[in-house]
Specification:
By secondary structure, the chain is mainly beta. 0% of the residues lie in helices and 52% in strands. It has no helices and eleven strands. Strands 2, 4, 5, 6, 9, 10 and 11 form a seven-stranded mixed sheet that branches. Strand 7 and strand 8 form a beta hairpin. The N and C termini lie far apart (40 Å). 30% of the residues are buried.
Amino acid sequence: QVQLVESGGGLVQAGGSLRLSCAVSGRTDSRYAMGWFRQAPGKEREFVAAINIDGNIMDYAGSLKGRFTISRDNAKNTVYLQMNSLNPEDTAVYYCAAGPRVRQKLVDYWGKGTLVTVSS
């Protein structure tokens, strides 16, 4: 079993930045591709970003590329999402995910999410 715990969410003004973290615990000997999804009120959960096991291949939702950056520190068992130039449309619960093919939602584990609220 693997547990994912997100942190770093909160309230930020439009134009601001936040960095989310996802701490991975449990069977960390099994390494996974990791990623972030988000779900805004009344909307479906959508892909945000993914990173491969070695941390050298990243993939982003087209609309977010250039503002969001995903990274991972395997020594710390942590995945990060740096979010810049935030706008109110980025308001959502952000979920960490681990699995064989994260972008395709082939996810084995989900975190419980962290709320990001962007005020105008």
